[in-house]
What we know:
Blueprint: E1 9-13, E2 17-23, E3 38-44, H1 46-56, E4 60-67, H2 73-84, E5 88-94, E6 102-107, E7 113-118, H3 131-135, E8 140-144, H4 148-160, E9 164-168, H5 178-182, E10 185-189, H6 190-197, H7 202-210, E11 216-220, E12 226-229, E13 235-238, H8 251-264, H9 269-284, H10 296-305
Parallel strand pairs: 1-4, 1-8, 2-6, 4-5, 8-9, 9-10, 10-11
Antiparallel strand pairs: 2-3, 6-7, 11-12, 12-13
Amino acid sequence: MAHSVIAPRILCIGIPVRDLAFRVEAVPARGSKANATHLAEICGGNALNAAISIARLGGRVAFAGPMGDARETSSGFILERMASENLDTSHIVRIPDATTPVSAIIIDATGERTLTIYRDPALWTVELPDADKLLADCQAVLVESRCASFCTDLCTEARRRGIAVIVGVDRAMSLHDGLLTTASHLLFASEQVQQTAGIADDGDALKRLAALTPAFLAATRGPRGTIWLNEAGEIEETPAFAVQAVDTLGAGDVFHGAFTLRLAEGGGVGQALQFAAAAAALKCTRHGGGLAAPQRVEVEELLRGEHRSNSKDALRI
Length: 317
């Protein structure tokens, strides 16, 4: 698969999280206890998982967003792992007296995850660095939808400069959300696109949103693949790869990162969606959340095999 000789620089915007992931046979009932078979302490967060994915697939990544006070331990833990993945962390903003988010994640025998997370409200007061610094030599911006309050102006400036802005949507968006119209590409999950549009059908929901935004629109549907609207407003489909899923944590984030990178390399949206599906599928075959993101050679090998399936064991995003 041909791609740019000079790796594109991608800016990822989000809020990093320190994850405590427990593997169990089954999620315990309310008020009960369960013994975990495995514990992993990893870094996470939507944009950070995507950033790791991009770096492993060959992109150059700068990360911007808030983290807690320099004295608290979670931020130090995350920064060490970001450095090991060769991510540029110079644009991270430390918030005095704030706490970096921490999540507790339970992963059952099917690979499905249940989680709870704490985000310090003070993190939302962040002011990102100057746009000239963040967008210099930048081919794409990937942002968590929840960060609209502090990044919409930057994304608007990126679009003014002709830079693609990809939004990974993991919760319902307001129809008045600035990112809805600022983004060049909106990647929803099935539940979120239906909730955002107020329509209980993925295709109809995409078509309703298309009347409100000029952005490219897609909805991931796990083992049923991804549906998206082409330039004519017609629904197209990108199948999922059949894999035995053991851990779906971070799969959607890996999808978003891979899509963004392939797009920044000059691939069309169809090609970028196939590339993303392969990367996310491989992530689901191993434990570790976003830290289980694959290397590029693995993705290209899977793409060459062209094995697709809609089976129940296919990845869930």
